[in-house]
Amino acid sequence: MNLKKIVIGLASLVGACSSQPTASPVQAQETQSQVVWQNVTAHEFIFDDKPDGKKVLNAVKKTLTPAQKVYLRFKFGNLAFVQIETPPDAQTLDANGSSYWLAVSVDEPNPMVKLPNAELFKQFSAAVRPNADAMKLDRRVNTMLLLALGNNHYITKAEDKKLAPLWTESTAGLSLEFYRRVSSGTMAPVLEKCTMTVDDKQNFQLQCTPATSQAE
Asked: CA 40, CA 34: separation in Å to the nearest integer?
């Protein structure tokens, strides 16, 4: 794939849905950071004892507090996907802490961007959709959600076959159906059914509604 310089834009993080249907369009904001993403669909794992992993870890750790932890997850081409975990604040009632994802170039000076990111989503979507079956379903769903929403909260086929994601490409565009569990405060997690639609310009809309049963 040809090199493509993209201006990184931070998109608003999409939070958990309420009990009412929600819709979330892509909204990018321009920044001065730039990255060149090569071989967008070439998936590999990345390890902290290998040269690429060491470079990414060193670059990311410079941006973190001592308490935060960084985990290398995987990469596509020269772009590594990294999860950052922040421990809970002892002064609050938050017992779980928080986490977020970064996309980090393995090429020095290792530019990085916090996910979600509209332009990276568009580039990945455009690359994977013409031959989607060449990539494992969970791998493409996981990456699409990270780039679009900043999290990979969905129920995989391995977790529940009845709630496995459904990827359907038609003349109207891509329809990605998936289930997820969301919670609010001390409430028990609620099962939601979500549909992400993607048009021919790689713009997406997300709509989630409470799932009345696991059979729908």
From this structure: 16
